[in-house]
Amino acid sequence: MPTYLSKQGLEDLKAEHAKRITQIRKEIAEKISAAKELGDLSENFEYHEAKEQQGLNESRVVQLADMIRDAVIVNESTGGTSLGLGTTFVVEVNGAQKTYSLVGSNESDPMSGKISNESPIGLAFMGHEVGDLIEIQTPGGAMTYKIISIK
């Protein structure tokens, strides 16, 4: 399954992957080694904790490798007429203007204005144009967004 990412998003994943392989693996191996020196492993909390960390790290390494392998770079859209993956746009909601970017799910960060193209809000924006009014149902009730501009 493709992983939609910006160039920066792919670089971030590669950096995390490299850090987990070169640095975090080593740190966990040192913790395991130190815990083994404490004696009986059957009731050794430090050992079991380090082994759990090792398993979680290795799972993330595999997940990152898969995402990097399946990465599809989405170029930032500039000057387009409709909203799509990679588009940055300005909306008006409740009298305030907000800037959002439609990104792949792995890069989403709603607090920074990065909305996943797979989220209900992201899906609602897809394909709309400047001037469109979009009503989105949220847990707090219906919200109406007006697309002001596409960057």
What does this structure look like?
The chain has 151 residues and is of the alpha/beta class. It has helices spanning 7-36, 45-69, 120-125; strands spanning 3-5, 71-73, 88-93, 96-103, 114-116, 133-138, 141-150. The strands form 2 sheets. It has a 5-stranded mixed beta sheet with strand order 5-4-3-7-6. Strand 6 (133-138) and strand 7 form a beta hairpin. One of its GO terms (biological process) is regulation of DNA-templated transcription elongation.
Topology record:
Elements: E1 3-5, H1 7-36, H2 45-69, E2 71-73, E3 88-93, E4 96-103, E5 114-116, H3 120-125, E6 133-138, E7 141-150
Parallel strand pairs: 1-2, 4-5
Antiparallel strand pairs: 3-4, 3-7, 6-7
Helix pairs in contact: 1-2
Organism: Candidatus Uhrbacteria bacterium RIFCSPLOWO2_02_FULL_48_18
Keywords: DNA-binding, Transcription, Transcription regulation
InterPro entries: GreA/GreB_C_sf, Tscrpt_elong_fac_GreA, Tscrpt_elong_fac_GreA/B, Tscrpt_elong_fac_GreA/B_C, Tscrpt_elong_fac_GreA/B_fam, Tscrpt_elong_fac_GreA/B_N, Tscrpt_elong_fac_GreA/B_N_sf
